[in-house]
User: What shape does this take?
Amino acid sequence: MNILIIGSGGREHAFAWKISQSPKVGQLYIAPGNAGTARYGTNIEVGVTDFPAIRNIVLEKKISMVVVGPEVPLVEGIHDYFLADKLLKSIPVIGPASEGARLEGSKDFAKQFMFRHGIPTARYFSVTKDNLEQGISFLQGLKAPYVLKADGLAAGKGVLIIDDLDEAARSVREMLGGMFGQASETVVIEEFLSGIECSVFVITDGNKYKILPVAKDYKRIGEGDTGLNTGGMGAISPVPFADEIYMKKVEERIIIPTVQGLKSDGIEYKGFIFFGLISVQSEPFVIEYNVRMGDPETEAVILRIKSDLVDLFEGVANGNLAERELVIDTDAAVAVMLVAGGYPGDYQKGAVISDLDKISGSILFHAGTKILGEDVVTNGGRVLAVCSKGKNFKEALELSYLNASKIQYKDKFCRSDLGFDL
Ligand SMILES: Nc1ncnc2c1ncn2[C@@H]1O[C@H](COP(=O)(O)OP(=O)(O)O)[C@@H](O)[C@H]1O
Ligand SMILES: [Mg+2]
Assistant: This one.
């Protein structure tokens, strides 16, 4: 069958690499893709939310499955668009329809969902211009630091963690006043939870689920988790503290109630669920849901999935996921992200990348690259994920760092302390 992957980052390259290994795949297309995905399929220049253009591709290229990488097209209803179209409705989309995608598209919706289904998460209050005073008194009842979240999608920038109460109250007002545009017309005020985070991924057909390898990502630009937030500077899988006992708690208290909750709320959900978790004295709490795989976690996680991903996707589409096999490698896998100098602030694109062929033992997933004439050039803040396996994460990291040092482009940067906290 022909498959279309939507997206253009390291996650989509990792999908393309894995999907292309499936004997079930005929032609593979990536829209829009990047210089890395072009090695495993055909890139098609189209925006991820240009649904009519995607429709044309699907019909023209005789696509029989669409795998959606990023959240924006899901939240904007790509799956619903397919279901509403006579010619597209029988073509499976891996990723939830917009109602299920609200788990990520609205933090207030996600919080209501979790409280409704008894899923452990921080206490919260959702505030708008209409109940500002109640919101401020909820805030005053909390202990510092204060967590303020824009309700809607904000490309990973919509969360403020503030030590001072007055400043937090001021920020609530500024957020409601449009600091994040429409996304912060509602602000979720949360109790701060102190602990260590990890990402748990599940694939579900809306009824049964399978748990994919657990990972930890590193969001801050600076060593020791300091400095500005980024899209992600690297990831490690598995996560030592997310052991069997912890994962049993996660499954019983979080995964099962979530999948059941979607069902009992009448939300048909086919795709990935990403649980952003925090361990508070070894008890798991949900920080957030995402409705797609994480990036860069995917680049590490995918190296540990031995089974045919397309077979699992078929199980999702056909509602018989339980009959499919998911075999996970016991080895560790890591992703080390090479970024552009200056990122996540201002940075330049278009730097020529050389010595990509000097890599050995690692696999490169392109995050922000493109082909320009004979060259591969940088085309984003996050440029390349250098991914490796090893007996443990330290061994895998050593290999990634060795290969990362071989790649050349102007102002290359990566964090050299991944795993420091594990
Ligand atoms: N209630 C909380 N307690 C402590 N830290 C939090 C809390 N909520 C969010 N954070 C921190 O802020 C980060 C971003 O919040 P998250 O809800 O994941 O939003 P997003 O990923 O959409 O920016 C989390 O990874 C976590 O480090
Ligand atoms: Mg998050």
Summary: The mean pLDDT is 97. The chain is about 30% helix and 25% strand. The radius of gyration is 21 Å.
